[in-house]
Amino acid sequence: MNYTRWPIVVRMTAFLLAQLGAHAADRFAERIAPLDLAPRHVGLLRWIAAHPGASQREIAAAFGVQPSRVVVLVDELERRDLVQRHQDPGDRRSRSVRLTERGERMLAEVGRVFLAHQADLLAALTEEESAVLGELLGKVAAARGLTDGVHPGHAAADSGA
Amino acid sequence: MNYTRWPIVVRMTAFLLAQLGAHAADRFAERIAPLDLAPRHVGLLRWIAAHPGASQREIAAAFGVQPSRVVVLVDELERRDLVQRHQDPGDRRSRSVRLTERGERMLAEVGRVFLAHQADLLAALTEEESAVLGELLGKVAAARGLTDGVHPGHAAADSGA
DNA sequence: TATTGTTATACTCTATAACTATA
DNA sequence: TATAGTTATAGAGTATAACAATA
C-alpha cells in the first residue's frame, strides 16, 4: 500500500502536512456550509470583528489582496446581513465595515462549529498529544511567519492592531 | 496581535493545520514550478510510476476523479514527454500509461526538491521534534483514512496494489 | 492628480454532459 | 448496449484593468 520509488526512507512530513491541512479545510468547509458560509468568509468575519469600522482598503491591505476582491467578499457578507457598510463622514470615498448583530451571533456559532470540528479531527490523539501537536505546529508556523494570520490564498497575516 | 472574540482559550490546532498545510503546498508548488510541474502532476506521476501500464480508467478510479480529468492531466504530462500512452492490444479502446525515461528522471528530481522543501519547512524543529510531528500527523491521517493517498481535491487514497 | 471603491473582463481549475470508437 | 477515452461546455474562484466619485 506504500507505493515507493521515492525517498520514502524519511517520513514525508511535509506531504502529510499538506494532505491533512487540505483535509481539515475541506471538513471545516462542510461544517459551515449549512450556515451559508465558506472558509474565506470566516477569516474575514473574524478580522472585521477584531477591527470594527476598518475601511475596505484596510481590509485589503491586511489580507494582502486586491480591493476588488474585498468588494466581492463584503458583498457576500452584506447580502447575508452579517456585516454592514457605513459612510465614513470624514472621507466620503471610504466605507467602514462592521459586524451586524446577526454577524456577531454567527461568529459565535462558527466558533462552536470549529471546536466540534477540531475535536473530531484530533480524536485519535490523547489530550497530551494534541497539546504537543499544537505546540510543534505553532513553532513551525511562527518560524515561517504565519503568526495569527489566515490562510494563504484566502488571506495574509495580521498586520497589527 | 491575537485578535480574539473567539474561543482562543484552546489552541486552534485545526486551524494551524489548515494554514500550515496550505503554506506547505504553496511553497512546494513554487519549488516545482521551474520544472514546469504543479502539485497535481506530482501525485499522478508518482502513482503511474508505482502502477506502470495502468489504464486511464484505473487512474480515474484510484484518484476518485472523472475520466475526463485524467485525459487533461495525462495530456499535460505527455506534452512534457514525462509519460506515454500505449494501445492496449487486448482492448483497443483502452490506453495504458507509463513513465518515459524522462519521466523517471523527473520523478527523481522532484524527490530531491521535496526533501529540500521539507528541510526548509521544518527547519525550526529539532530532529526529534520533527519525528514526533511526523508521528502525530501520521496517526491523525491514518485515523481519518488518509493513508498513503494524495491530496483531496487533487486525488484520493491509494486503492491497492 | 491621487485615492476609494466599484464594475468589467479574462484566466485557471474543475465538473458535467455530449460524442467517438471500440467491444 | 455498454464501456474507454475524448471533446465541448459551463461553473467557481481569483486576478487585472478600466472606471466613477471624491479628495
From TrEMBL, chains A, B:
Residues 1-142 form the HTH marR-type domain. GO terms for biological process: response to stress. Gene3D superfamilies: Winged helix-like DNA-binding domain superfamily/Winged helix DNA-binding domain. Coiled coil: none annotated. Residues 1-24 form the signal peptide. Pfam families: MarR_2. One of its GO terms (molecular function) is DNA binding. Keywords: DNA-binding, Signal. It comes from the Bacteria. SUPFAM superfamilies: Winged helix' DNA-binding domain. The keyword Cell membrane does not apply. The keyword Signal applies. This is DNA-binding MarR family transcriptional regulator. It comes from Actinokineospora auranticolor.
